[in-house]
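--- STAGE predict ---
source: upstream dedup step, 1 unique chain passed
mode: sequence only
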Amino acid sequence: MKRAILVGLVAGTLLMGQAGARDWSSQWKFGAVLEPELRFKDGAEPRFLWKRVRGIARGPLSSRVNAFIQFDDARNRVRLMDGLIDYNAIKGGPVDLTFRIGQGYPAYAEDGWAAPVGIDYTFMSEQLKLPYRMSQVQATITANRRYQFNVGILNGSHSLLAGPNDRPMFLLGSSLIGRSGTAHAWGMTGFDRIAGAEYKSWMYGLELTNLHRGRLFGEGAWMSADRFGKKMNGVYGDIGYKFNKDALAFMRLEWCDTDVKTAGAIRQRWSLCAQQRLNPWIVLKCDVRYEQGTGHFESNNQLDIQF
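--- STAGE serialize ---
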């Protein structure tokens, strides 16, 4: 499957780029993401790290085909994070149909495929490794801009260029998009490969995202899974307030049973997060967290620089 997706990605790029006589290169956009962090934790020395050092390129290959490429060098080695081609087969009417091929985030929970609301993803998303990229073929249908359906075939080896993983994973999701928020249900079943071992896995979840009314905003989700040999359940909820267009704060409560079969595997964490935009390219983020059981406070501070 990995080779088929890679060949399809390259062939699609070449063919679609030559499909029209128009020169689309002038519409391409290039950017970068730099995220230096300073972390403090009870009983440990302060830690400085570069969480993301990324170069980004995106743009059209034709009137119906768009490409997105992202590289990262935060670990002192260049890695391909995303290499995606979107083909808008139907657009502009009551029904839109888009096909996606390449390596990127699967359309699981939003707290996994989208950028985190705070500095980090939720504990449950990190335990399930939802922010992992996978090679994939996905189709998305949007009807009347309110109803959305996703179906996908994924390579559980978590990489377009590594693997192999001959037995794939299958994804199915649906969303109801409203004026005050989005409700999303999703499920996955198939085979994962990580650290050289293959696992039969399943996951599913329900979430409410982009909730807003006036200056208040929030989101929440419940997830359950049997992945990497562990059965897990978790839930989280956010509620926040936007002071103005540049400043906001929110509180988060997380509960996660990281291994249903093991006693003492429950984790519970509270977070208070604040963000202030310093200029059009830089956002200062500060998260303070407390985890029940360990009794430890943790403070994470980040400059999110995007241009």
